[in-house]
Design a protein that fits this description.
This protein has 141 residues and is an alpha/beta fold. The chain has 4 helices and 6 strands. The longest helix is centred in the middle third of the chain and has 18 residues.
């Protein structure tokens, strides 16, 4: 196991792989953009979430990280990422917002009809009310 770990950290100078450049894409939106994500990893599970607010050219404006103790609920992490990201945008007086989330389930819960009996119904309702306070251009998967 030590040898495997050392191999992971050793730089192989004979490698012919080219560097891969990654660019943030704003999809031609000229508004503030909120990128969101939740994550669950390990055993016992550690659940976290976060959001980044950027302007239309990709400059960092603000971030909202978080951690959920004693949980393995990835859906709640994704919903909390949206909630905290929208709160941060509201505090910064952002008017026009594009919101990116990788959770289709969250987007469907927020855009769909109200779900009274869902375990996160109150959080979903609060998110919906926050969204109504913005000129949300789109919520994108």
């Amino acid at each position: 196991m030590v040898a495997t770990f050392n191999n992971c950290l050793t730089i192989n100078s004979s490698s012919t792989e080219d560097a891969i450049f990654i660019k943030w894409n704003h999809n031609n939106h000229s508004n503030v953009i909120l990128n969101l994500n939740g994550s669950c990893l390990g055993s016992p599970a550690r659940v976290g979430f976060g959001g980044l607010l950027r302007n239309h050219v990709g400059f960092y404006l603000s971030g909202s990280p978080g951690f959920i103790q004693n949980s393995a609920d990835i859906l709640r992490a994704e919903l909390l990422a949206i909630y905290h990201g929208l709160l941060q945008a509201k505090e910064m007086a952002v008017a026009d917002l594009v919101c990116y989330s990788d959770s289709l389930h969250c987007i469907n819960l927020i855009k769909g009809p109200p779900t009274k009996f869902h375990s996160d119904a109150v959080l979903i309702q609060v998110i919906t009310e926050l969204i109504d306070q913005f000129n949300i251009i789109s919520i994108i998967l």
